[in-house]
Amino acid sequence: MYPTLSLYINGEFIEAQQRKTEPVINPATKEVLGQLPHATQTDLDLALQSAQTAFESWRHSSPMERSEILHKVAQLCRDNAEEIGRNITLDQGKPLAESVGEVINCSEHADWHAEECRRIYGRVIPPRNPAVRQLVVREPIGVCAAFTPWNFPFNQAIRKITAAIGAGCTIIIKGPEDSPSAVLAIANMFHQAGLPKGVLNIVWGVPAEVSDYLIRSPIVRKISFTGSVPVGKQLAALAGAHMKPVTMELGGHSPVLVFPDVDIPRVAKQLAYFKVRNAGQVCISPTRFYIHEDIYAPFKDEFINILANINVGNGLETETEMGPLAHERRLGVMDRFVEDALSRGGKIALGGERLSEAGFFYGPTVITDVPDDTMLMTEEPFGPIAPLTRFSDTTEVLKRANSLPFGLASYAFTNNLQTAHTVSNELQAGMVSINHFGVSVAETPFGGIKDSGIGSEGGTESFDGYLTTKFITQR
Prior knowledge:
CATH class of the largest domain: Alpha Beta
CATH architecture of the largest domain: 3-Layer(aba) Sandwich
CATH topology of the largest domain: Aldehyde Dehydrogenase, Chain A, domain 1
Number of helices: 14
CATH superfamily of the largest domain: Aldehyde Dehydrogenase, Chain A, domain 1
């Protein structure tokens, strides 16, 4: 059974009652799964006050206490992965194996922050005067407001929550209204783990209204957002007007460079399956394919053959390898990308059309001969469309790959050590992955540069956005 949807404020799960609600839709069947309550202004004020009150004690909590709670949540993730994953598939659409894997992998984020929160160190600075003591300490920044997306609803929420709580902060999170079950599952697990009331609060509502209200509140001292570049810039501008620091993980348009010395079948298979992961609705999905001219034809044929045999269907069916798009509106967006590419000389080599009226399904699509000024090569498609283009020279392709204002993830495939060294140095991105897709594990920083964001989540950098630096000098 899909769970009853609610708010979570001051340690209490609050159901709809007389509040405004919105339907949550299964994108594979268009079935209404439940009604999600929107927070009223009174609810938001209660969440703010609860978080502020809780912060006064939580900021002084022992790192050992925080660590114990986070470890408990990690175990609860593993214990409940199947149920949580099924609900993610119901409201978000991705195949069940991907949903369950998302939850299990996120147990590592809870465990990682459980360990690292015990190692938030300061330092002693040798004084010029021996009678003086000089210390640097790191302190929790305060109440945090976080806004998370629908494509990885569990992953994106737990990254922010574990970092804030591990640092000694309290947090109000507005998750995705389209796929809310994952965020409520996180609240349930922290509740079971004994997190004090008010440390974590979950609210829902009209995104622009909730974000504006929370960011303007003097109680909130830190903003974290994962989502599109335009919305991220709006929120960053509002936060900047109130001198509040931000962590922003925004959109990307990831180039992938395939050099002529690779094992073509192996690389084509890797890229094909990574491209249709979550139906291409992944901020680090490879979205601009630059294939060396010497292997363009065989790579294209291998790549298309693999995608043509991808099983698209309801994520709850065991044979499904790619589910639907998460929203009906995404279908129209895919059509516009295809139409623009065709109008500029691109050629459909595979797909390019909707698959079913029963759900929001769009077929894996490959478009060749795509000019660099098309929508597909300049805007993030966020769907299962792969544009293939040729290159002949490393310097030239690096210039093309770096030509956009995005800089989240990038990929290169080569067996030449010098080529790998060159592209890893010259690609302008927060994350560069050579010969695999290893950019999203708990112990490594995740974040972009340029328009793709500010700051990192994960790794030893994870707590930087949730701590302030205080210098203490005493004589």
